[in-house]
Each structure stands twice: as C-alpha cells, then as structure tokens.
C-alpha cells in the first residue's frame, strides 16, 4: 500500500501536482469531495457538518471542537478515506491530508506552498478583484484553514 498525502495552502497547484503524479505513478488521485461522497455510507450527513460549503469555508467554533458531531464527522471521513487507501496506491490531496492519514504507516507527506504573489495574482485573475481584496481573502482563508488543524 503506497500513499502520498498532499496538503496545501489556498490557491496552490496541489491538484495539478496530484494529477501529474497519479498519471506517472499509476495511482488513483483522491480528493476531499470524493471522500465526502463516499463517507455518506458511514452516516457523515448525520453529523450536520458534512455540508461542503460550511465545512470548507468556516472553521469550527469553540463548542464544536468538543462536540460529539466532530468525532462522528472525523470517524466517517477517515473510514471513507481508508477505504480508498486499501484499494491500492493513492494520492490524496486536500486540507489536513497529513493529519487524516496519521495512523497509516509509510505515507509520503508533501506540503505545497505557492508564493503569496502567485496566489494573489491567481485570485485577482479568477475573481476579478483588487490586489488589496485578494490579499485579505487569502489571509482569511489561511487563518480559517489553520483553525481546522485544531478541530
């Protein structure tokens, strides 16, 4: 079983890297969205945290960090992710990739960080916003993602 876990900051080219590695190595490329869909069979929707736009955009509040829903959500997500890992060589890329696979031996953990200037330029081009607004949005996304590591 070989696993590559790619974690990244916002607006990085991790998905492109994962796709290229997957085609070169013959490994399945697994995304967070694929795992969420597969986690439905474990009851992830019962947690109330599975809604992609809520989970992806807003870090948990103080009480949510200690709620049973959090444990249920992580258990469902990890179970679905492990199902993919057991099927053969995989490359998983998404938030918290290195934390989610901490119980799996022999995982190559990769962190992709693009320079801030590249991230700003990408956001400005994709959303048609000012440099100032792009910087503040990226900082907010990074701050929220950092809070997820404490979830």
Q: What keywords describe this structure?
A:
151 residues; alpha/beta; Rossmann fold; 4-stranded parallel beta sheet
Structure description:
By secondary structure, the protein is of the alpha/beta class. The protein has one domain (3-148): P-loop containing nucleotide triphosphate hydrolases (Rossmann fold), CATH 3.40.50. Helix content is 52%, strand content 13%. It is built from seven helices and four strands, in the order βαβαααβαβαα. It has helices at 14-25, 32-38, 52-57, 68-86, 97-100, 116-127, 131-148, and strands at residues 3-8, 28-31, 90-93, 107-112. It has a four-stranded parallel beta sheet. Helix 6 (116-127) packs across helix 7 (131-148). The longest helix is centred in the middle third of the chain and has 19 residues, at 68-86. The protein is globular, with a radius of gyration of 16 Å. The two termini are 28 Å apart.
Overview in brief:
By secondary structure, this protein is an alpha/beta fold. It has 7 helices and 4 strands. It starts with a strand and ends with a helix.
